[in-house]
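Before relying on records like the one below, remember that each one covers exactly one chain. Contacts with other chains, cofactors or solvent are not represented anywhere in the record.
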Amino acid sequence: MKILLKKARIISYDNSISGKVKDILVQDGKIAAIEDLIDGNGLSVIESGNLCVSIGWFDMGCKLGDPGYEFKENIVSGVSAAMAGGFTELACLPNTKPCIQNKENIYYIHSKSKDLPVKIHVIAAATDNLQGKQMSEILDLKEAGAVAFSDGGHTIEDSGMMVRLIQYLSQVNGILMVHSEDKSLSLHGVMHEGEQSVFLGQKGIPSVSEDIIIDRNLSLLRYTTGSLHFSKISTSGSVEKVRRAKAEGLKVTCDVAVANLVYDDSYLFSFDTNYKTNPPLRSKKDQTELWKGLKDGTIDAIITDHAPQDEESKNLEFDHADFGMIQLETAYSLLNKANSILEVQELIDLISRKPREILNLQMPRFKVGEEANLTVFDPGMNWVYRNVKSKSRNSPEIGNELKGKVLAIFNKNKFIDLRN
């Protein structure tokens, strides 16, 4: 099949081509031509008012539910949601049942997804059963294809275990992704602790519950001289701590979830449980500092933190509802609307190149003859989020008009047309 992208603006980390408007021909799964003008006669043509194309987007933090929680999401529905949102590759978290902690678990996910248009990478459990007590079989998991190690939304509370993990993973070129929350401080909390939580009469999750774990883990990093990735930082204090750690020369990276960039705790006045996330939606001040952290390079990547929840988990009183929001389908549109500080190339970099760089994965190349791993989108196109691809519906955006539409993806010798 021959697909022509007509007058597409290239968004790329390669400054020699970024910003250029070209006709791009994709044939038999490869980039066949990049020219000023290509005759579209007899070709399937994609064009729009502001057509853009970049290397395929990558989400390095989502929950797919399979195995164990297939009633919330499975690999096929998760991939459908990812395609709709423009993602050609995902790294799924180990929060399944059983959790992803042996070679067979990894082979299972790779096998179920091998023929799908989205490539799924696996983040395996750092400790047995995500309990922080016993190190998982890291070397076996790495050899089976694990791209990183994490206990998902569980903090590794034991400092000795943290030290051993950092030291061991540094010897095998492994990546440790950590959640930062002191449960003794956040226990029973349902939203950010601040004026809003007091006004609403809800138990708060204080910023210090995150900040104190960031501080501890940075101290352990100095002690071990290894590397560490902080996942889903959400407070202004965390941004500043990571900024200082980088200036100090520590090998540290971090990411932020879409929800913490586009919503703040004022949204909870509605008591809509779809806004109940972990980490919680923080204050407007925190949100501003997160965007500044993205701009100055303190924060290295943006993740969807796609967390499907079934109706029985969300249709409850606010304090009883589970945490989580689906985000794969709407992430780009929400970021596109909320962003007022980043250039288009900077924003796309944070959901395409940077995650792959953190995980030491092969980078798709925007060159003639290369396999097409591309996301095609129009930042100015409006659309209504109605046809939900995820098995779950825990999003506050369903039925809303959004700006910034994904039109197609190319990956694994497949073309997925998303214009309808």
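The radius of gyration is 21 Å.
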